[in-house]
């Protein structure tokens, strides 16, 4: 699955077979929760950048505020709790995964209402704190959403890329469609008004959570087996203290120990480093894209039409195409091709910086960028899903995803300083972002060989 070999007669029908996978109702559930995962990036991402830019906040401060996304890089620290702790009442009513998602959506709703009442010019500190509340709640409910996707789709290897695609389509729908409406109406209703009606969007997302079905898994049985194993290893007595110690050990240690045990230390560390490095260049571009669009001369309406609305439609189409390609040719190969294409697409932005705000060039750039990003992201999410165990899916996926977020958020929060250090040379900035993919591709070659060797040894 990770690497497809020469086509056989049965593989010639993979294209039609891949499309037939989208008739599964579980993919609709994944799509709906994907919308909830993407929406917070509107609240504290592109919309906040536009609001702060219109309020006269400096580039460096806009870029620095993105440090609130760093919580995505450390959410694996508390991710084990979402595999093991059931919230009173709500988890009994909705189940473990939906209970956590619904509760954290409620926190996001309250923070969004508070944001609508905050003026960044007068109280940037309060706005930053509220942004941190949103990012912490969103990063935590993403743990449950990712685990939901992994658990409800199971180990069907033909469904994993399709599930990854629908998750991404949902994410971009939750991000781009509200983002388009926000930028299209920001000058009419004002940014405070935008955030007020965005609170309504959060309420709709909470309704989606009530509509989806909780997955049925053997998670608790697998966790119980781990508890018995650790109890024997630790010679724990059947007392309250002994049981608590075993529970804590299984909750905190076993999710990460299992990942390294299944992959081996060398491969596991290579995977973690690859995940950290792969999308840094894309993140540097993304953090400064709105600022760049405004400085180069594009209006809010143009940003809304091309970057948000058109970009959303293209991402949906290209993500579905990317999932079928990854089923046909393999996840690792798709990642390598996607990484090269993703880096090359960054050069389109350098072209804009040189040529100026031409609408036709803007549209062409959005088309190329969305195709490359969608193609590589499907393979990236599919790879992380395959590397995740089923007893502690929330913790293990969070470990991988948070490392990717560390590169995309913490390091890229200095993107504004880099532009300033280059004296506003946007063309050179985008060339540098294109080169940032090289270390990740080198690691991917090593990982692909190791995974292919493991598959052959099992055959």
TrEMBL record:
Source organism superkingdom: Bacteria
Record key words, sorted: Membrane, Transmembrane, Transmembrane helix, Transport
Transmembrane segment boundaries: 27-48, 60-78, 99-118, 124-148, 160-183, 189-212, 267-289, 309-327, 334-354, 360-385, 425-448
Compartments where located: Membrane
InterPro entries: AmpG_permease/AT-1, MFS, MFS_trans_sf
Main subcellular localisation: membrane
Pfam families tied to this protein: MFS_1
UniProt keyword Transmembrane, yes or no: yes
Bilayer topology: Multi-pass membrane protein
Protein name according to UniProt: MFS transporter
Organism: Gilvimarinus algae
């Amino acid at each position: 699955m990770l690497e497809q070999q020469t086509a056989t007669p049965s593989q010639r029908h993979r294209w039609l077979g891949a499309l037939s996978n989208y008739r599964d109702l579980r993919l609709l559930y994944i799509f709906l929760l994907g919308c909830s995962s993407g929406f917070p990036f509107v609240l504290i991402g592109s919309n906040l950048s536009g609001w702060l830019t219109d309020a006269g906040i400096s580039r460096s401060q806009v870029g620095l505020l993105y440090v609130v996304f760093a919580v995505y890089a450390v959410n694996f620290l508390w991710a084990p709790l979402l595999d093991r702790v059931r919230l009173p009442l709500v988890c009994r009513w909705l189940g473990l995964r939906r209970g956590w998602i619904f509760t954290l959506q409620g926190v996001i709703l309250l923070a969004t209402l508070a944001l609508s009442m905050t003026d960044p010019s007068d109280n940037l500190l309060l706005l930053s704190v509220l942004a941190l509340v949103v990012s912490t709640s969103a990063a935590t409910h993403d743990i449950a959403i990712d685990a939901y996707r992994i658990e409800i789709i199971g180990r069907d290897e033909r469904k994993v890329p399709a599930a990854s695609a629908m998750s991404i389509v949902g994410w971009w729908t939750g991000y781009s469609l509200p983002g388009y409406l926000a930028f299209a109406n920001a000058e009419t209703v004002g940014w405070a008004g935008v955030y007020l009606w965005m609170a309504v969007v959060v309420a709709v997302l909470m309704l989606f959570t009530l509509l989806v079905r909780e997955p049925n898994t053997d998670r608790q049985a697998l966790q119980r087996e781990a508890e018995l194993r650790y109890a024997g290893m630790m010679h724990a007595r059947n007392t309250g203290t002994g049981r608590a110690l075993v529970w804590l050990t299984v909750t905190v240690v076993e999710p990460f120990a299992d990942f390294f045990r299944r992959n081996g230390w060398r491969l596991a560390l290579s995977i973690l480093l690859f995940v950290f490095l792969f999308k840094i260049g894309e993140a540097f571009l993304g953090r400064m894209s709105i600022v760049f669009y405004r400085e180069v001369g594009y209006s809010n309406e143009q940003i809304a039409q091309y970057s948000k609305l058109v970009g959303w439609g293209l991402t949906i189409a290209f993500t579905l195409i990317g999932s079928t390609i990854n089923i046909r040719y393999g996840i690792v190969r798709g990642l390598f091709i996607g990484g090269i294409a993703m880096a090359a697409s960054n050069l389109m932005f350098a072209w804009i910086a040189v040529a100026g705000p031409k609408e036709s060039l803007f549209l062409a750039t959005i088309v190329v960028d969305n195709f490359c990003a969608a193609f590589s992201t499907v393979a990236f999410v599919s790879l992380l899903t395959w590397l995740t165990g089923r007893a502690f899916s929330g913790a293990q996926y969070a470990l991988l995803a948070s490392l990717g977020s560390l590169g995309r958020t913490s390091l890229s929060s200095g993107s504004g300083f880099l532009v300033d250090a280059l004296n506003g040379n946007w063309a050179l900035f985008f060339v540098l972002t294109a080169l940032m993919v090289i270390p990740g591709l080198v690691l991917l070659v090593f990982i692909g060989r190791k995974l292919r060797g493991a598959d052959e040894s099992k055959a």
